[in-house]
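Continuing the series of single-chain predictions for the mutant panel. This is the parent chain; the variants come on the following pages.
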Amino acid sequence: MLVDSHCHLDFPDLAGRVDEALALMRANGVTHALCVSVTLQEFPQVRALAERYPHLSASVGVHPDYADVPVVTEKELVALADHPKVVAIGETGLDHYRIKGGAEWQRERFRTHIRAARRSGKPLIIHMRDAAEDTLRIMREERASEVGGVMHCYTGTWEVAQAAMDLGFWISFSGIVTFKNAAALREVARQVPLERMLIETDSPFLAPVPYRGKTNEPGLVKYVAEEIARLRGVSLDEVAAATSANYFKLFKVAGGA
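Parent structure:
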């Protein structure tokens, strides 16, 4: 059993071929996937996917890269999270790569998501790019540890991963771990305990080797698991079992062993 803890099946590259993507999931032993929201305007499509397919779940949130969208409120997020198929708040966080040095509206949006997660009791999906210190500071100030969550598509250092785990967060690895230029990230993947690890595709982006450069999809999470198993000198079954159990525990999704 494998699980994709982060995908975007509603994005244009995948929305027209969902049944095909689900077929590849079945063929590759991927039993569940979490469809992640990036704007409230597109959230109904994300929720509809989760409602239609029993092995899909949804999150609700506004991605930090989206500047030109209406201000999201804590009340809105809490109300939308009150649905049996919505298992997390996010994708939220900080991105100082696309928005150099960050922006106060981005930080305030992040704080709003953390407060909504604490009120709803649902974990956070955190995007962090070139913003580790700022992200961890806000997580501490807003008591994100009360709900925990996942550092999605992790690309940071071991020290930052340790700090996030100390706050009750899991570390999720994507297809990036299979890239030739990701030696430092592979070292982190060797060190993160399996009981604190998730795997994901972030599809339709970041297809793992041997599909790099092509459209990614949830069924390809198998290649992320295979690389982690190789790095750690353990079996694919061990990585699959641990990361799947972590998914069901964190997001309280029915269907785990």
